[in-house]
Design a protein that fits this description.
There is one protein chain. This protein is 32% helix and 26% strand. By secondary structure, the chain is α+β, with helices and mostly antiparallel strands. The protein folds into 2 domains: 9-70, no CATH class; 76-181, 10 Kd Chaperonin, Protein Cpn10, Chain O (Roll), CATH 2.30.33.40. It has a 7-stranded mixed beta sheet, with helices on one face. A two-stranded antiparallel sheet has the order 3-4. A hairpin with a 2-residue loop joins strand 9 (161-165) and strand 10 (168-174). Helix 2 (22-42) packs across helix 3. The termini are far apart.
């Protein structure tokens, strides 16, 4: 932008873009974008000017903003999808609960080797319960959670998503996957 002298034709719409009239602003936005796109595609000088403008804006971006962008933590769900485990607290949304799966299928040898059972475990302890589900039909009704924190439950085999939270083998399951609560 500093070396290339160019007067973009779409600049004539900038004032209308700032208009308080919604219709005027919308029309100006469409014309601005249409003319800008067309000119950048057909005019090499416009294309070089736009590339230079973007480079200049990136160069002038404050260092603290660049640093924040590069150090942004991953979204917990994105982290979950990528790695299958995470070290943050996790609260399920309404209609879901987190259970710690029973390790009764694991055996530890004398040397400390852990041998997992081939059997899929389908019982565990409830760690967190999401909010009750509100169903909007002709009237508002609520589906209550079938269990509470620390209940020992039986759930459908293979239900939910396997996750590790702070080193604990857990499952994120729906309320409807709970088959019953053990009387301890």
């Amino acid at each position: 932008m500093a070396n290339i002298k160019f007067n973009p034709s779409w600049k004539k719409y900038e004032q209308d873009l700032k208009s308080s009239d919604r219709e005027t602003s919308l029309k100006a936005s469409e014309k601005f974008e249409s003319e800008r796109t067309h000119e950048i595609q057909t005019d090499n000088q416009a294309k070089r000017w736009e590339e230079g403008r973007k480079a200049e804006l990136a160069r002038l971006k404050p260092q603290w903003a660049k640093k924040m962008e590069s150090s942004k933590p991953l979204d917990p769900l994105q982290e979950l999808r990528k790695f299958g485990s995470f070290e943050t607290n996790f609260t399920p949304v309404e209609g879901y609960l987190i259970i710690e799966v029973d390790n009764s299928g694991e055996k530890t040898t004398a040397s400390g080797l852990i041998i997992k059972s081939e059997k899929i475990e389908n019982s565990g302890i409830v760690l967190k319960v999401g909010n009750d589900v509100k169903v909007y039909s002709p009237t508002l009704s609520t589906i209550l959670a079938p269990c509470r924190f620390a209940d020992h439950i039986l759930f459908k085999r293979g239900a939910g998503v396997e996750i590790d939270i702070k080193g604990k083998h857990c499952r994120l399951i729906q309320f409807g996957d709970v088959l019953g609560v053990f009387d301890d």
